[in-house]
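Worked Example 4.2. Consider the chain below.
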Amino acid sequence: MRLHLLVPCVFSLSLCFGQIEEGDQTPMTPKEEIIEELLSERESNEALTKAEGKARELGVSEQAILEARFLFHVDRSEDAEIAAMLPKFLDCKNNFVLADSEIFASEDDFHAVVEYVHAIAAIEKGDKEGFKKHITEAFWLSPQQGAVFAPHIERVRLTEAMKDVQVDLGFAYASVMDERKPALRELLGEDRAMLLHFWSPLSPECEMTLPEFFLSAAHFIEKDIAVASVLPETSDKVKEAANKMLKETGKELPGTWLVDSVDKPLSAQLHVKTVPVVVLLSREGKVLYNGHPTDELFWQALESINPDIERPVIHEE
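Applying the procedure from the previous section yields the following structure tokens:
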């Protein structure tokens, strides 16, 4: 049962799986069942390893097992683990069998992913030119998978842009909730670092993840990380919507909630184009991380500041 997943679907696997052979009521064989388990496993590395053992016992090809592990790490944004898979992908490169594939619709799609893994391995080593070479080749081989490759290019470019940025911690920003106008340094106090959380009441993702952010922010504050949420939009209408949304949560707001400045916008200096975005600043105002709050690199940056920081476990109601 070939799934014919194009790699853009790797980042939204639930959507892809929901579209696979819909309406097909043919009972699956044990081998097909274990393949489906492999491709959908996201619980833990241990669970995937266990499924891989069952798959080998049932005669599933090493190529299909490699593909499943690739999806596992991509879906969890584990770049170091993806980079470590490069030798296995190179071994498979000359022996790839399309008929055995569970996720690729063409050989070019597979070879594009090999180049993609090569690119991730290059950036893990700090090899910017190698990254550019391999990610360009990946685009050439499979341009329809550009939605997967583009975020890594954006990350590399953003990291380069942030190297020389230093936020002015002495600048004051207006509060969303009251008439205060505190300076960032005042909010930082004696804490180890400062987290800027860019959000908007107009963003469905921000609204959906606000309870998770409250939980994370409270944890950061306990671990000596100052937290300031920043509203990039400065219009009265958006500020009113933000104030209303925050009040309607009925919860104590963690950290400080600010409105960006028209004269000296943080969002422009930090290249914030979408929300939610988090930016971790050193006590000197240097950028330690800039990106999406779910990225593993964000949590690594936090743990480098305070090893006691743990990623909160979110329990769905």
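Residues 1-22 have pLDDT under 50 and may be disordered. Residues 184-305 form a domain with the Glutaredoxin fold (CATH 3.40.30.10). Compare this with Example 4.1 before moving on.
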